[in-house]
Amino acid sequence: MSNSAMTTDIPANPPREAQASSLRPALIIFALSGALYMLLDAANAEGLWMAALKIVPIATLLWLAASSLVGTGRTLALVALGFSATGDVLLAIDFPNHFIFGLGAFLLAQLTYAVTFGRRAHFSLCLAGRAFAILVAAGMLAAQVVPAAGDLALPVSFYIVAIVTMALCAAAYRGGSSLLFGGALTFMASDALIAINRFVEPVALAGTWIMLTYYLAQALLVCGLIRAELAARAA
How crowded is the C-beta side of 41, counted as CA atoms within 13 Å? Predict the structure, then answer.
């Protein structure tokens, strides 16, 4: 068989539809496990097993990232998800200063995501608009939360800076940035709910809304990275 025939019969890159379909089983497991955790959490289920169930959706995204990404981007995404899962467990288990430890783990996750997205950042007029929206939203949140955080004002301020940095880097990501930007904004919304519920005033169904936006944010970030990876391979 000639080289030209082989080139014709075996495409260099699998069709994008086939690549997308390979993600579906993991995303189904992600959605079902996330929904199960939120239902049990809303029913006030308790125990260490709930902390384990809480990170199943993130573990599924870890699997998805490990099987779909390559190189340094893959390593950074896995580290960010690993810090996120650690933060989930620390926040779920009641022990002295568990909120500070959980906040620290998520701060590291946000900084790792920022490095991941910042590696392919570019500047444009669109970025200026996105950056303005991010900074206005963060400023409004900080004005409410930081004065009410008391002794935690400094670590909360550091965390706000970290997630704003992540969101700005996501907004500037070259290629496939719409999913990343949506994920960054959803992550900010989830953390805003945590901060307002903890420091300002109780939010109705806070646990459900927090986890719904958190899981959605993580999925959007990982899927955004995968989409950009597929686009780069096809180019």
Answer: 21
